[in-house]
Design brief:
320 residues, two-stranded antiparallel ribbon, disordered N terminus, two-stranded antiparallel sheet
Amino acid sequence: MSELVTGDAVVLGLRPARLPSRALALAIDLVVVWIVFILVSIGLAIATATLDEAASAAIVVATFLLVLVGGPIGVETLSHGRSLGKLACGLRVVRDDGGPIRFRHALMRGAMGVVEIQMTLGVFACIASLVSARGRRLGDVFAGTLVVRERMSAGRGIAVPPPPPWLVGRFAGLDLSAVPDELWLAIRQYLTRMHQLDAEVGLSMAERLAGELAVRTGAPVPPGVPAAAYLAGVVNERQARDARRVFPSAQADPRGQGAMGVGSVPVGVVGPAAAVSPVAPGATVSPVAPLAPAAPVEPGTPEAEEPGGRKPGTGFAPPA
């Protein structure tokens, strides 16, 4: 795990890409680039068949620079570090602080790539990647970048803490379509590691993320709601929408603990379902009135406290 430190003194747990995955991604990129270069060269050779030798040589050099050098630079700049090979292998180029790369980073990587990849058939790049602790080649060292694994196995993920019960369903009317994936990733990383942060740093980061999320959704943060709890509530709402999209026949659990399908135990049943005694034949069963939904309890009220003055357990404790 690579410890990338952001400007807010937050350590990001990113896993650097190793040589096999990087070599496969590079092979895919080289095959695509060389196919494009050969096709463009053939087309230009047919179109410029009447030119002299010097002009043809100049066109060949210009094609080499534009396709084999400028092509990867342009793709990494426009895709923020995701070339075709890296996209297929689940990799991405990021800055040393975990942010997306810019043109100057892609330019340095592309310029060094001509020497250590194309002129030496990748020998220098392999040696540098094996020697480096984070698998970086010379282009990454000079550009200040790192290739990380963007797709992780589900078993290694860290669960996002659920929000307080009184926030479940409160953000059902928010428009989340304008929230970018980068912001969702930053919020998720904060929620999973907020108890490892310094109190002041965690509070400032939560307020900054909550402000950005409020701008994207077009609705301000509700008054009296802590920033960390607000972030957890919105993330829970997004997860609930994703669950309803994948399983449209499921019903949302009012406690915010997933979806309830057909055959699930109702919320009001106490004890396991297998403990229900069978009804004798011929016995009269009186209908049971449905339970009325409990009104939401606002935090800070006497009803929100347990006997003895203790707060009820919510499964979510924002940093102090």
